[in-house]
Write a structure and sequence with these properties.
With 505 residues, the protein is mostly helical. Helix content is 73%, strand content 2%. The chain has 21 helices and two strands. The chain has a two-stranded antiparallel sheet with strand order 1-2. It is globular and about 65 Å long. The termini are close together.
Length: 505
């Protein structure tokens, strides 16, 4: 599979260039090639996932330059999982964008979409910290364009805020990388694992500073308190399908923390100890609380879902912060579930806004009149996000609660109380949208009685719900696979060997 490791990066990059250069005036061709590219990426991701699960990690070196000089892509269980999740989500959401007509509302949607795929796949596969920064910038540049797709003053203002926060993150990232390189002389993950572990505690002040800077960078990407301010406005004002794709964007921060702080800065490292875990857990608890309160008090449906995304990141980071195989297994299951569940709710919110003419949850707006199917989809999405049975959110939260058992009663209390707040917020919003009576003369009633949603858009939402159902039905084998993935993170010898010694055949 060695050469196939580069395909998730190269395929969307080539397609993006073709779409810009040869298809910019033909939306039908753009749609065909973009959907074909996403389907091909999903097929390759499935093959890579199977290969990663049946063998040791593999490395692909562009130009066959040895570590730490060359660009290295490394396929292991975690990277394969994240690429597969991204490809599955992207295909479903792209179908929604085509079905709903969102891709027609601005220029270069599909080219930017493919560049986004390139950046995401590269960030998950890279074996080098500097190239992680490079792929971060690729996906962020594409996301800037997608964020303001369709125009509008509010969207542009939110996009400027999004750019500003991420420029700060990029600057901190460069400072962190420069510090790490100055101390160790390398940015290759495998080399860093050995050199940081060999640093005596008395000579590790700069590496601790660099580790904290990296944590701040990944906290910005993952919307961790107090660096979460960009997310609600950005996601609430983004086009519906773009916000749904962004459900995996925050997971890049979570992935980077898992990769970096289990491989380079594990709690057992003498130079850093449990410093980063001690910083991460309190921030995760506050993030969960802020997200749940935001859900309860949101004035618009898209903003409510954005705060639900913040709350989901808080729960995810609680599990990650423990840095144990059991907690990481729970974190990975919750990561997959929350990505799909938040994406579903963003797409349903977009359907509601399209049918209602507004996302305002105030009493002045009429409820959605194409009630039955959209109401059922909203209910399914709300159940998934809130963590209620029978969908996978319930199992995901049980896994997290089991992983944190015995750590502190405060953690259980925060998770359970915020779950209740989230349920109440989602229930109130659903009642306002689908049950509350209104005067037929209410402004906006005509929009609420508009045309039914496009069938392809509904199919896309149904596909994501089917994935959530599959995650529930096959929770046993999925958890077993994730347990093996978590185990490989805490026994990184095979990853280090592949990154250091692998060659292109």
């Amino acid at each position: 599979m060695t050469h196939w490791i580069a395909v998730p990066v190269l395929l969307p990059a080539v397609l993006a260039g073709l779409i810009v250069l040869a298809m910019r005036g033909d939306i039908v061709l753009q749609r065909v090639f973009s959907l074909f590219g996403n389907a091909a990426l999903l097929a390759v991701a499935l093959a890579l996932f199977a290969a990663a699960g049946s063998g040791p990690p593999e490395a692909y070196r562009l130009g066959n330059w040895p570590a730490p000089y060359g660009i290295v892509l490394v396929l292991d269980r975690l990277a394969a999982l994240m690429v597969l999740l991204t490809a599955a989500l992207a295909l479903a959401v792209n179908l929604y964008a085509v079905g709903s007509g969102w891709d027609r509302r601005g220029q270069h949607f599909h080219a930017l979409w493919q560049f986004q795929m390139m950046g995401l796949a590269g960030a998950f596969l890279t074996g080098d910290a500097f190239n992680l920064f490079v792929f971060f910038e690729v996906l962020l540049i594409a996301s800037y364009g997608l964020m303001i797709h369709g125009g509008g003053r509010d969207r542009l203002a939110a996009g400027v805020q999004y750019v500003a926060y991420n420029l700060v993150g990029s600057t901190l990232f460069l400072f962190a990388l420069a510090t790490i390189y100055g101390v160790t002389g390398t940015l290759n993950f495998a080399d860093l694992a050995g050199k940081v572990a060999a640093l005596p505690p008395g000579e590790a002040g700069l590496i601790r500073v660099a580790g904290v800077l990296l944590l701040l960078v990944f906290a910005i990407k993952g919307a961790l308190v107090p660096l979460q301010f960009w997310l609600p406005a950005t996601y609430a004002n983004a086009p519906g399908p773009v916000a749904a794709l962004f459900a995996v964007m925050t997971k890049v921060g979570a992935y980077a923390i898992l990769r970096t702080y289990t491989l380079v800065f594990p709690p057992a490292t003498p130079a850093t100890g449990a410093l980063f875990a001690d910083l991460l857990l309190p921030a995760a608890l506050v993030t969960l609380l802020v997200g749940a309160l935001g859900v309860l008090g949101a004035a618009s449906l898209m903003r409510l879902v954005a705060f639900a995304a913040v709350a989901s990141m808080g729960t995810l980071f609680i599990a990650i912060a423990l840095f144990t195989p059991a907690a990481t297994t729970a974190a990975l299951y919750y990561l997959v579930h929350s990505t799909l569940a938040v994406a579903v709710l963003f797409l349903v919110a977009d359907l509601v806004v399209a049918g209602r003419g507004s996302g305002d949850l105030g009493a002045a707006r009429p409820p959605v009149r194409s009630e039955g199917l959209i109401a059922a989809l909203y209910l399914a999405g709300a159940i998934a996000v809130a963590g209620l049975p029978p969908l996978s959110g319930f199992l995901a939260k049980l896994l997290v609660l089991d992983a944190v058992r015995g750590i502190a009663a405060t953690v259980w209390t925060v998770i359970l109380v915020t779950s209740l707040l989230t349920i109440v917020g989602l229930a109130v919003a659903g009642s306002t949208l689908f049950w509350k009576s209104h005067d037929p003369g209410t402004p906006g009633a005509a929009a609420a009685d508009g045309a039914a949603p496009a069938p392809l858009a509904l199919v896309a939402v149904a596909l994501l719900l089917a994935l959530l159902a599959g995650l529930t039905v096959f929770a046993g084998p999925v958890t077993a696979e994730l347990r093996a993935t978590a185990g490989s993170l805490y026994d990184p010898a095979a990853y280090i060997a592949a990154n250091t010694l692998g060659r292109v055949e």
